Amino acid sequence: MDHMSESVVVGLGALSIADVVAVARHGARVEVSEEALAEVARSRSIIEQLADDPIPHYGVSTGFGALATKHIPVESRAQLQRSLVRSHAAGSGPEVEREVVRALMLLRISTLATGRTGVRPEVLETYVGMLNAGISPCVREYGSLGCSGDLAPLAHCALALMGEGEVRNADGEQQTADEALAAAGLTPVELREKEGLALINGTDGMLGMLCLAITDLTALTKVADITAAMSVEGLLGTDDVFAADLHELRPQRGQGDSAANLRNLLKDSEIRESHRDPAACTRVQDAYSLRCSPQVAGGARDTIAHATSVADAELASAVDNPVVTKDGRVESNGNFHGAPVAYVLDFLAIVTADLASISERRTDRFLDVARSNGLPPFLADDPGVDSGHMIAQYTQAAIVSELKRLANPASVDSIPSSAMQEDHVSMGWSAARKLRRSVDGLRRVLAVELLTAARGIRLREPLRPGPATAAVIDALPNIGVPGPDRYLAPEIEQAVEFVSSGSALAAAEKVTGVLR
């Protein structure tokens, strides 16, 4: 892990998306505020007062789900909590990514720290210790319906807290949970009333993946503007359509931001100036994939902004059932239903697919001699002998086709569970899982466009591109260079890394300043 020096403090206030990314992706440590620990202790005392109450209280003295009518005697309640976690740790399939597990753990810690769940302070502190030690429980791909929380994924984490199940240590090595806890100087938790339920009943997995996706897509929309600018330049398109007054006629915020980026990126381009004279350039309008780039990338931005508002509200939430209210009531509720998060996860999959789709169409124009405005077929060195970037576009097309399938919403599906007690579920975890695959696909599609556009622009020499796009091309490793055919897959992977690492965006912003 890339440990950061600063810590994220979890308390009674809301975490930010940046906090989640810092802990999940960059290994920042977590601390719990003293104020939060005091509130946790206060709410725990309320739960303990209910333990001997003859009136049944869900999760304290009853079974779970459809078994909520079953009263559990005092002597069996510790076993009730252990059994809950063990039975719910029923995931299957490959392990999910470490950063997802860390995000999930942090967000459960955040809810526990609100004092609304009724756990003991030592449960919270041990969970924090497990996260800070770099212990990552082995969470499986399948098992969450996104209602009653991400039950199976969270249960695998709770199982590790009990010293059971499998985990990965800070070095990524698989160990048993008891071995990993012992190595970190932590004692497994003996769960008491309500605690097993509090550890598994939240939207933390889907929310963590939403935060990571928002972060990635925010950067990728800027990369999409960079690749669009390079394509406009390389295909001898016009920047006139990006004029500010034209976009003020339709004041969609994201569209205006994208158009402003394109104006910055295309500024002072020799290639653009070479065909500015309308008497010499007979093309009246560019194709939609060039001309309408701000409308598409801008719409994506606006959708990300909406998803961010949902994520921010969820980050300020205490999701559990039942909850301990501030005035001391213990109340059942439906806040664990993942619908709000599931919807925006699906929205983001739609705009991700569409951003990739328009990028692929721009790439394809470079390769068609009838539409590339003077470039060789497929950008090949010796067309016929060489195929140039022909199959790079096939790779893009395969990914875009996959992204269109992944854009099918998960949140419209529901399969009843728990003997019809849980008869409507969100499928938010599934929406999040497919969005992660979508984001990776978009990154790859944009990388191929960048690689192709760089080659196309180089074929326009001696004319030079604008300073911003030139900086991106100059920062590339030795790829996207015209010449005889060569092994292309490694170049594509280098371009993917160039985008993924932030190098493409950083190169452009050295010239333009921070893009919108």
UniProtKB/TrEMBL annotation:
The family database entries (InterPro entries) matched by this protein are listed as: Aromatic_Lyase (IPR001106), Fumarase/histidase_N (IPR024083), HutH (IPR005921), L-Aspartase-like (IPR008948), Phe/His_NH3-lyase_AS (IPR022313)
Q: Give the GO cellular component terms, alphabetically.
A: cytoplasm
Asked if the Swiss-Prot or TrEMBL record annotates the protein with the keyword Cell membrane, the reply is no
TM segment ranges: none
Q: Which UniProt keywords apply?
A: Histidine metabolism, Lyase
Main subcellular location of this protein, as a coarse class: cytoplasm
Task: Output the GO biological process annotations, alphabetical, semicolon-separated.
Answer: L-histidine catabolic process
What SUPFAM superfamilies does its record include?
Answer: L-aspartase-like (SSF48557)
Q: Where in the cell is it found?
A: Cytoplasm
Give the protein family.
Answer: Belongs to the PAL/histidase family.
The protein's name is Histidine ammonia-lyase
Please name the source species: Flexivirga endophytica
